[in-house]
């Protein structure tokens, strides 16, 4: 017994001492462009994180298998599971950043919380970070956030696009209409409020706010209030994870008209709508990229990656909303690397060079077609000042088993959004004591 | 053999009452501190400093704080996350309102602010005990988080409700928060700060106050009869504990993640710290460090282990293995030594004394 206890003690001591001795996997010495990945394949949000991370990984794997990399420069991809947990995300970032053969091309934290935590870190480490469809909206101001990019569209622009859609549906006039926002009561869910309030003043609709405490499994009271007392003309949702499917089911249960219920892009994926089944038919959501597998590049993923048994998720997932979003993440990053390669040469690039590529990124509709992604997303054009690129979005509708587009591409009114980004970014710069970067010199 | 105190005679009260009465312990602790201060910065990578050692030190402070309340004074608390959030948001408000104030002073002020909050939420402890008190402190947890999420004032009206640490230097160019702070600066500062706080805590629990706490913990009625005022003892435990926890929340937000929203201090954070002191050892400062090491370092080590030994496993498998092994180890240690890792160390020490001739 005594010996056993002593052994247990030594075992404990050894276990605790181990991380002090070991270092992360030794960097492989090869000439390759390094792409770190921060997916969340475990934890409560894994149903969203698996397709998102897999789309990213698979697109890179497809390029490697089909073209041998990017312009002949091989791709080295490595990932670390964050579990959608901010502390773990930071740990993963620190672990991955030095473990590749070269400097990381760009980071995709895939979580607004981790994006916030990494902003000071990537700024210090001079590594570009993209938050596509999440993160800080005011990172669109490249003067304050030189290393952060949020193409193609921010939450604020998303809110604007939804209001434009509603306006069109209502025949142009929102005067006296009632619009409700059901939102995840967190940093992410509160993003659209300021924009919606500003638009409420301009357009004359009445905005009511319904925060849902995370994780959002209990929404009966909310929906009784929305559908029985307030009876808004339209309801918007900024939901996440299990909150989405709960909301759609509750809305259907209280008989709220589903075609007047519009979610943001994180509330418009298959796992959100599927649990409600037919009852959820008619529910709408905003999206900024196409869905399905009907694109040559995605067919290439199926043939070059999945047919070889190298896919990082189930084959059925390919073409789902979150999967294609992962593909978009990868495609934008790879285009930036190509742009930078054209300037600096076809070799593994540093973070600073990739940032140059991002700030000179032009993905026209023709370019999307060349990439085998015709009509996959709107044109993206970034610059030193504009890190968002003024992308567009469309509304899709759930038909009970799949998403169908029901609107054209909607262009957010960036002339009005831009001052808001700049004001918010400048406040951040002041708080942080940052000097604004002069973009006119570049 | 090495670890024998024969020949160490104590001829005055000072040496008898020293924190480490045995010479080997004293030398050991000083060596560990010097190693951490002088050697670790040269051998550790930035990854190790910023994502392993910094959170370990931060959580050690939190665990010391909760250990004072729960381990020494016997008041179970589930409000740790809320008190950590207090420290973080108080620091943010103070340092953005008065940028010229030294950040160390701001941390301490935030700690004092949290202590006041702790006293307020400690009041129910005068009437209720045990599990019921745990539920009452849970109210603090939920109320405080609610307050910080709902009032944009706390975040300087940031649209997202996230606070970001502005750059602040301890002196001159020695930045410890914000973009210009290097992992090394953060580590050095936190190491000294944690050592200082641990020293304060250790001396507090050896003082009259600490003995009053332990008397209340062991039997509050008996303590009251021998003249200890439960009001003063319990509320001072809440105050001191919240002070430490507030500081740990502040350094968590400012020096580890560098940007947080109130949701980072959810109730799971409270449980995490509670597990640390249960596994590390209730009523032991050393136990706070061991528990923090167990809860913070072990999962990171487990998720690094496959890569270290050259195995390339899918990341989701690694994540799930980590949960399973970590859970199993918690159960294992609680069965082997219900009094925590600190007790395990104590037993080991006894063995070492008699080694190599045990009887």
Measured distance between first and last alpha carbons of chain A: 72 Å
Spatial order of the strands forming the largest sheet of chain A: 6-5-7-8-9-12-13
Helical fraction of chain B equals: over 70%
Work out the helicity level of chain A: 40-55%
Gyration radius of chain A (Cα, Å) is 23 Å
Sequence of strands across the biggest β-sheet of chain B: 1-4
State the separation between the terminal residues of chain B, measured CA to CA: 14 Å
Shape of chain B: globular
The main β sheet of chain B shows up as: 2 strands, antiparallel
Number of helical runs of chain A?
15
Report the count of strand segments of chain A: 13
DSSP helical segment count of chain B: 14
Would you kindly provide a written description of the structure presented here, covering whatever features stand out?
The complex is a heterodimer of chains A (442) and B (359). With 442 residues, chain A is an alpha/beta fold. In chain A, 44% of the residues lie in helices and 12% in strands. About 4% of the residues of chain A have low confidence. The model of chain B has no long low-confidence stretch (mean pLDDT 90). In chain B, a hairpin with a 5-residue loop joins strand 2 and strand 3. Chain B has 14 helices and four strands. Chains A and B meet through helix 1, helix 3, helix 4, helix 6 and helix 15 of A and helix 3, strand 4, helix 12, helix 13 and helix 14 of B.
Question: What are the defining features of this structure?
Answer:
heterodimer, A: 442 residues, alpha/beta, Rossmann fold, 2 domains, 15 helices, B: 359 residues, mainly alpha, two-stranded antiparallel ribbon, globular
